[in-house]
Amino acid sequence: MPIGLYIHVPFCIKKCLYCDFTSYPLSGPAVKSYLESLIREINLYGTALADEDKIITSIFFGGGTPTTLPAASFKTVLNAVRSSFFLAAGCEVTVEANPGTVDGACLTELRQAGVNRLSIGVQSFHDRLLGVLGRIHSAAQAVQAVQLARKAGFDNLNLDFIFGIPGQTNHDWRETLHRAVEIAPEHIAAYSLQLEEGTPLAQAAERGAICVCPEETELTMYQDAVAFLTAHGYSHYEISNFARPGKQCAHNLVYWLNQPYLGLGPAAHSLIKGVRFANDISLAGYCDRLSREEYPVENRTGLTVADEMSETVFLGLRLTAGVDLNQFYRRFGRRAEDIYRNEIAGLIQKGLLEISEGSLRLTTKGLPLANVVFREFV
Ligand code: SF4
């Protein structure tokens, strides 16, 4: 079965104040050792997997900050992937880009290496809010990154935004949405700020040093984003994601449709043939294991059919198209409506779910309460 390939690049110039992703300070020797290990990991899977499991429909370089790597290394890594796997026609190749780490030359090199989609972490068009988040770039640099990407030949751009930032007003958020639409990316992702435990921003909130965005404001911001972006030709296809026709993110659809994926790099997760596994989170441990030609896998969990069914439902509900009930039946030989009869009935009664045109989906009321719905299927 075709797979999505995720490559985790674990370096950042400076840790953002809200971030709990795995990343390490950038250093030349660490990058060198990481890249050598990554190539080894690609080759290991290239040798071990059967040909039918090596067809790749999407590649996603995430982080961390992939654009901290030397631009030439994308060509090296993608060539290694091409020699070990089979890239499907039209394979989407995305690189996450931080506006503070790109210039015209590097973006041109990425495009020439075969990268055909950029996901630019803009987050806000207000420098004061970028400061609250601890981002390393300004709003002007984000606009410039988009212009440079277009000049380098990218015709498929995602811009990432965060709302619910301490100190952000509804007016600020609407301004950011306006500017986003003016720039006209093919895809927009808008996530509410999560105060992850242990991050400096969460600690500041606990001390009362910053005012957390009230839930009602956050809800209004979400509703504003949905109304504004859909009115400007973006289809709202996933809880937090919006796309021009035909520009949905193929890689993220792999996750939402609960299809197989292989994750490479420290802390990367995989799901292959019903087994979920995660790589060593430590860069040193990851490199060490690969230097001995061992898989850098820290833990493996075999999923039961019940696990797979529940994940297929709650991941699929993230999509506004919902869970295709016929497809669910073809995959598992059982009807989701029978397995989750009580849960579905209860949520329909509360107005959070609906069954329409053969799909089980969140209602408009259910979209912002998705986590409440998902809990019923875990
Ligand atoms: S750039 Fe991204 S991964 Fe790095 S610290 Fe900031 S949010 Fe986290």
* Terminal CA distance: 26 Å
The overall pLDDT average reads: 97
CATH class of the largest domain: Alpha Beta
Total E-strand runs: 17
What proportion strand? 15-25%
| CA gyration radius, whole angstroms | 21 Å
**Hetero ligands:** iron/sulfur cluster
Backbone structural class: alpha/beta
Strand arrangement across the biggest beta sheet: 9-10-8-7-6-5-4-1-11
Question: Number of helical runs?
Answer: 15
Q: Per the principal axes of the C-alpha atoms, what is the gross shape?
A: globular
Helix percent reads: 40-55%
Fill in the CATH topology of the largest domain: TIM Barrel
- How many discrete domains? 2
What does the model show?
Helices cover 42% and strands 23% of the residues. With 378 residues, the protein is α/β, with parallel strands linked by helices. It folds into 2 domains: 3-256, TIM Barrel (Alpha-Beta Barrel), CATH 3.20.20.70; 305-375, Arc Repressor Mutant, subunit A (Orthogonal Bundle). Residues 12, 15-16, 19, 21, 23, 63-65, 98 line the site of iron/sulfur cluster. Iron/sulfur cluster binds at residues 12, 15-16, 19, 21, 23, 63-65, 98.
Task: Supply the key terms.
single chain; 378 residues; alpha/beta; TIM Barrel; Arc Repressor Mutant, subunit A; 2 domains; 23% strand
Give the SSE map:
Layout: E1 3-9, E2 11-12, E3 24-25, H1 28-48, E4 55-63, H2 72-84, E5 86-97, H3 104-113, E6 117-123, H4 127-133, H5 139-151, E7 157-163, H6 170-183, E8 187-192, H7 200-207, H8 215-231, E9 235-238, E10 241-243, H9 250-256, E11 261-264, E12 269-272, E13 275-279, H10 283-291, E14 297-302, H11 305-316, E15 323-324, H12 325-332, H13 336-339, H14 341-349, E16 353-356, E17 359-362, H15 370-375
Parallel strand pairs: 1-4, 1-11, 2-3, 4-5, 5-6, 6-7, 7-8
Antiparallel strand pairs: 8-10, 9-10, 12-13, 13-14, 15-17, 16-17
The structure holds iron/sulfur cluster.
Iron/sulfur cluster is lined by residues 12, 15-16, 19, 21, 23, 63-65, 98.
